[in-house]
Design a protein that fits this description.
The protein is mainly alpha-helical and about 450 residues long. The protein has helices at about 1-10, 30-40, 65-75, 85, 90-110, 115-135, 145-155, 160-170, 175-180, 185-210, 215-230, 230-240, 275-290, 295-310, 310-325, 330-335, 340-350, 380-385, 430-445, and strands spanning about 15-20, 25-30, 355-360, 365, 370, 375-380. The longest helix has 22 residues, at about 185-210. It binds protoporphyrin IX containing FE (HEM). Protoporphyrin IX containing FE binds near residues 287, 354 and 431. InterPro entries: Cyt_P450, Cyt_P450_CS, Cyt_P450_E_grp-I, Cyt_P450_sf, Cytochrome_P450_3A. Its cofactor is heme.
Length: about 450
């Protein structure tokens, strides 16, 4: 994709067009225009492009929601990723990391090469099951577990008759469904609906005995759903976001971004109160859809980079030993691992999972002299922005130092729009903080006693 973007940009300039099916798509490789689209004039580009490649029961997931519905669900959803809430998951995350270390040690003791990506894939599955749903599994050693099988079905999103029809002849979906033709696989939907119902029931039983200590995202989502059903609670929920205790770190690249006029998070007035049950189901399923491959791939790429660069790996190892030692990492101790953060950012620069982002123009608009018609999809070539040699010296070299303070893009050395692995503006990645913790945590656990694997440069 990046090769295609480079060739198109060379041939046709920083603004050029392609078609996605019948949908025209304008790729823009000009950071001053992108800043307007994603941040300053974000209210004119409020939505992502729906390619139509998801089954209908996933159309309600945040990434695809539009306008007021999106605004409402996001305002309910984003507080569950605050640092205060993350801290409450420490026990669960440490448990998954211990399972990971145990599995890595077994492989290392066998003294032969193994597929690290498969191990991180299983670890990410365990994390989502535990942090997302409060379900404790070891999917590396128990790949046939029902929860794992259902989650994988959801992630793989097999091409079904329904999906093909949704793309080429959507008007056929309703009559065929009425005739009972099986169009989509839906056993995993029934499975997760049942998990949610049981969690709600469990939650009601637990609250009768007092508040719970160890929370998972689904429980928080249910809390948020209930709170949002009542204006007073919703206001309190949103006020919490400004509470320093609850949200006290600056993981958010867009932390200084203040939503403009009608993009305000607190505006729930324009949408009916509460989250519907479909919203709740879709938002919990999205932990897999957007939180699985992204985290697993970033972890694997980070380890690949460290394997290829022993000097960086050793510096990171020393930092972990010095700050964490043989203790279990905590939210606050991991925050002190600045070199780890630099290595992660550099990895996300080189290998951004989302090679492209997009926005749809909600009306005719002219930005810096460029006319963008209503309905036009704007393509944002993240990979190209991260790898242009005019801005990143030797872009394909892993150089964590360039992510340090003296190089920091925040102090103008590099335009901030040239490092957007999680997107930018109000429509950026809502799970960014969780994602970064899920990646940093296992690497902070790799101290001697818990089975550090010293990686060898791949041959
Ligand atoms: C390394 C891991 C991840 C990367 C690189 C990543 C990247 C992205 C990107 C580029 C976008 C589009 C942003 C934009 O258009 O400006 C996005 C959106 C989103 N991400 Fe992530 N993501 C990651 C992990 C996660 C996780 C763990 C979750 C949640 C559990 C998550 C939830 C979402 C959601 C819900 C959206 C849509 C937000 C909206 O439309 O309001 N992501 N992500």
């Amino acid at each position: 994709m990046v090769k295609f973007d480079i060739e198109m940009t060379k041939k046709y300039g920083p603004v050029h067009g392609v078609y996605f099916g019948r949908q025209p798509l304008m790729t823009i490789y000009d950071t001053s225009i992108l800043k307007q689209i994603m941040i300053k004039e974000a209210h004119l580009f409020p939505n992502h492009f729906n390619t139509g490649l998801f089954p209908p029961f996933l159309d309600n997931f945040l990434f695809l929601l539009k306008d007021e519905h999106w605004k409402h669900v996001r305002s309910v959803f984003s507080p569950i990723f605050s640092s205060g809430k993350m801290r409450k998951m420490t026990g669960k995350i440490n448990k998954c990391c211990k399972t990971l270390c145990k599995n890595l040690k077994v492989q290392a003791d066998m003294k032969r090469t193994f597929d690290l990506e498969r191990i991180y894939d299983a670890f990410t599955m365990d994390m989502i099951a535990s942090v997302g749903f409060g379900v404790s599994i070891d999917s590396h050693n128990d790949p046939n577990n029902l929860f794992v099988r259902m989650a994988r079905k959801l992630i793989v999103n097999k091409l079904t008759l329904g999906l093909v029809l949704k793309f080429v002849a959507p008007w056929l979906l309703k009559p065929l469904t009425r005739l009972g033709v099986p169009l989509f696989e839906d056993d995993y939907i029934h499975f997760f609906t049942d998990v949610i119902k049981r969690t709600i029931k469990q939650k009601d039983d637990d609250t009768a005995d007092g508040p719970q200590k160890d929370l998972d995202l689904l429980q928080m989502l249910i809390d948020a759903q209930r709170a949002s059903a009542n204006d007073e609670n919703l206001k309190r929920n949103n006020d919490n976001k400004n509470n320093k205790d609850d949200d006290d770190d600056d993981d958010d690249n867009n932390a200084d971004y203040k939503p403009k006029n009608d993009m305000s998070w607190n505006d729930s007035s324009a949408h009916p109160k509460g989250l519907s049950d479909e919203d709740l189901l879709a938002q919990s399923l999205q932990f897999f859809l957007v939180g699985f491959e992204t985290v697993s791939a970033a972890l694997s790429y980070l380890c690949y980079n460290l394997a290829c660069h022993q000097e960086h790996q050793e510096r990171l190892f020393n930092e972990v030993v010095q700050i964490i030692g043989n203790e279990d990492p905590t939210y606050d101790s991991i925050k002190q691992l600045t070199y780890l953060d630099m290595c992660l950012n550099e990895t996300l620069r080189m290998f951004p999972f989302a090679t492209r982002a997009d926005r749809v123009a909600s009306q005719d608009v002219t930005i810096n002299g460029l006319f963008i018609p209503k309905g036009m999809v704007v393509g944002i070539p993240i990979n190209l922005l991260h790898s242009d040699p005019d801005y990143w010296h030797e872009p394909h070299v892993f150089n964590p130092e360039r992510q340090g303070h003296h190089y920091n893009w925040k102090v103008n050395t590099v335009d901030p729009m040239r490092f957007i692995p999680f997107g930018a503006g109000p429509r950026n990645c809502v799970g960014m903080r969780l994602a970064k913790w899920e990646i940093r945590w296992p690497l902070s656990t790799s101290s001697e006693n818990s089975g550090l694997v010293f990686l060898k440069k791949p041959t």
